[in-house]
């Protein structure tokens, strides 16, 4: 008899969408997420193109439904450690790591943050702000319950620090919390592990980390975010609004061997951010080729271009310092001086994709994304396991949702809809 439960690995947009569809059909869904929060890359964004909708307004209702839906068991700080069996009857072992904070007792008051003596770079904010050993990724992250980074906590160094516990009025801190191993049986599995952006430092001619006012795409996104490190103000690392910004397309395209597809439009969104927030700012976009598919995207691109963007096509580009600013040198030694540069690095598979592929015996294509069949972009090489969203390659948000819906439909059909 086929097991009707469904496992979804990755709780970003694709994983959330697939989980909700399966849960609404009456299925029990185990939604697995490695981070202490869920929502994936979308929750780093302030707005989404081409309609420039509020990203939080779009995603937060879906997140709330996940948390409230009795058919969905959300397991944050968790990962799959073993899988056996066959379609309709997969036996899965899941490692659920200790949070050290009670999901039941904590009310999200944040009183525990300030007393913590540890200060660390906040990875969620791309290192643009600091966090404590007990932390939330950002304001508004869900679940609204912090986790303790016990590897960085003073207690891990043998010190009897109880600062966060003493500050908590609700007895939510659990220093002796333990990792758990869960065993579940499911009929089908959906992989929705998403993507990451490549480290721009891999492309030394562009000066990332060498020159202070060169930013990665996600760094710039977080500058614009109202819950980000500057409360939505676009500032250089000196704390000043830039008078000119250069957005660089196609970073690392030759090295990677593929177009990441989404970069042209998110850099257009960034140009919109800059023109909207900084009066009189000069905006340059340097590109090799443009990828603007679809009528809605074309309209958005043209509307932003009309606001006065300098669009420069070039095959060669290098960046150097010029006094307090940055100088971009391109074809025939032409130059442009700006205060800020923003790089669009390649979209890559999530770092955990290789481990999951080995664990589940899934094939990866030449660029490291999960391989799908030629006629069906959600089918993996292993029956009963489906791929959704950017786990199978760079995708626009609309396509991510469609693939999640298709993967959910396939999972439901397999286990007997």
TrEMBL record:
Keyword Glycosyltransferase carried by entry: no
Cofactor(s), by name: FAD
Keywords in alphabetical order: 4Fe-4S, FAD, Flavoprotein, Iron, Iron-sulfur, Metal-binding, Oxidoreductase
Protein's UniProt keywords contain Signal: no
One Pfam family per UniProt: FAD_oxidored
Domain of life: Bacteria
Record-annotated 4Fe-4S ferredoxin-type domain positions: 97-127, 144-178
Gene3D superfamilies assigned to the protein according to its UniProt record, in alphabetical order: 3.30.70.20, FAD/NAD(P)-binding domain
GO MF terms held by the record: 4 iron, 4 sulfur cluster binding; metal ion binding; oxidoreductase activity
Family: Belongs to the HdrA family.
Protein name in UniProt: FAD-binding protein
Biological source species: candidate division WOR-3 bacterium 4484_100
